[in-house]
Structures are given as structure tokens and as C-alpha cells.
Amino acid sequence: MSEVSVLYDGYSNVDEEGYMTANCTCTLIKGEHNIIVDTMTPWDSDKIIAALQKHNLKPEDIHYVVSTHGHSDHTGNNNLFLKAKHIVGFSISFHDKYYLHPFEKGEDYVINESVKVAPTPGHTLSDVTVLVRTTEDETVAIAGDLFERQEDIEDSNLWLDAGSEDPDQQRKNRLSIADAAHWIVPGHGPMFQVTDDVREFLKRQLDYIDKGD
Ligand SMILES: [Zn+2]
């Protein structure tokens, strides 16, 4: 089993003048491998180092860095972790070596018995979600911008307005991740529980679209 700790809750806000401020949720997984998911903006390195210190970890203790997709607020400090294998969306690398993995065929990348990386395109065409078994019967999905924040379950405009390169795929993947997980760590908000109501909402949005065309 592995343990999930959210180091920083992400956020996204638009102010009165129309400027957006945003940063991603940054998450640590501890277990057989130490893994950091989404490394915030390049100006946040001190914050990440300080948060790791509270877990008695240094950047060189991290075995994998996962950026759920390639946007700048999710990759900003990947180069703090030079001992780690880097997974950025569908791309897996270490130094100048690239590992081919058929994410585009829907295949998960297994890190260990309790952690795997699943392809969940939509927000970008190469988004991934990290699925972590935290107990015998509990799974946490660290989903990046597949989910913007909890409120986007009821208000689809929140994730659509955040940018979606393929809304239909994103809708399907939102439901399949909700079906697979008990908790979701979204890209720009605090972790939330997946209730039956949440799954029902996501399913209805999919049915509505399927009938709509
Ligand atoms: Zn984002």
C-alpha cells in the first residue's frame, strides 16, 4: 500500500480585471516508491522542498515525478528531482532516455503494486491520472485537470472553461476515474470524496450528451 499526502491545495481564480491566478495541487505518494505529482510553478521550489522536509524527504529521495499534463503550473519544478524517472503526460524519460509506453492504446503504466498511471485524455490529449491504493479497499485518484475542483461535478462549465481539448473523452474519463476511485485529488482544488451522487451526476452528463447528438 501507499500513502497519499496533499502538499498544497491548488486553486484558480479570475479577478475583477479578468486576470487569472492559478496553481496546481501538489501531491506526495509514499510507499515502495516516493512519487511527487504535479510540481507547481517554477517559483515554488522552496515551498516544495519545505513540504518534503516535513516528511523527512529530500528531492533526491523521490523516485518518480509525474506531471499529469505538460502545462507550466504542473511541471515547474520537475528539475528538482534529478534521481527520478519523469512522466509528463504520455512521455516517460530518465536523462536522455525515453521509454515507449502505449498510453494511447489505453494501457496503464504500473509503477508498483499500489500505484499505476492511467491515460485520461481530455483536458489535453495526453493527460494522465495516478491511481493509488491506500488501503485494501480504498483508492485515491490524483487526476490533474481531468477535474478542476469538486464544484465542477455539478457545474461542467468550470472544467470546460479551464480548457478541454476533447470534452467528449474528458467526460468519459471523468466517469471512469470516479468509478475506480473513492477520493479524487483535482488539479486546482482540495481532495474530495467520490459519493454515489457524484458518480450519478457524471453518468447523467454522459447519457445526456450521448442522446443529444
Ligand atoms: Zn492546471
UniProtKB/TrEMBL annotation:
<dbReference type="GO" id="GO:0031123">
    <property type="term" value="P:RNA 3'-end processing"/>
</dbReference>
<feature type="domain" description="Metallo-beta-lactamase">
    <location>
        <begin position="23"/>
        <end position="188"/>
    </location>
</feature>
<dbReference type="InterPro" id="IPR036866">
    <property type="entry name" value="RibonucZ/Hydroxyglut_hydro"/>
</dbReference>
<dbReference type="Pfam" id="PF00753">
    <property type="entry name" value="Lactamase_B"/>
</dbReference>
<comment type="function">
    <text>Endoribonuclease that catalyzes the hydrolysis of histone-coding pre-mRNA 3'-end. Involved in histone pre-mRNA processing during the S-phase of the cell cycle, which is required for entering/progressing through S-phase. Cleaves histone pre-mRNA at a major and a minor cleavage site after the 5'-ACCCA-3' and the 5'-ACCCACA-3' sequence, respectively, and located downstream of the stem-loop. May require the presence of the HDE element located at the histone pre-RNA 3'-end to avoid non-specific cleavage.</text>
</comment>
<dbReference type="GO" id="GO:0005829">
    <property type="term" value="C:cytosol"/>
</dbReference>
<dbReference type="InterPro" id="IPR001279">
    <property type="entry name" value="Metallo-B-lactamas"/>
</dbReference>
<protein>
    <recommendedName>
        <fullName>Metallo-beta-lactamase domain-containing protein 1</fullName>
    </recommendedName>
</protein>
<comment type="subunit">
    <text>Homodimer.</text>
</comment>
<dbReference type="InterPro" id="IPR039344">
    <property type="entry name" value="MBLAC1"/>
</dbReference>
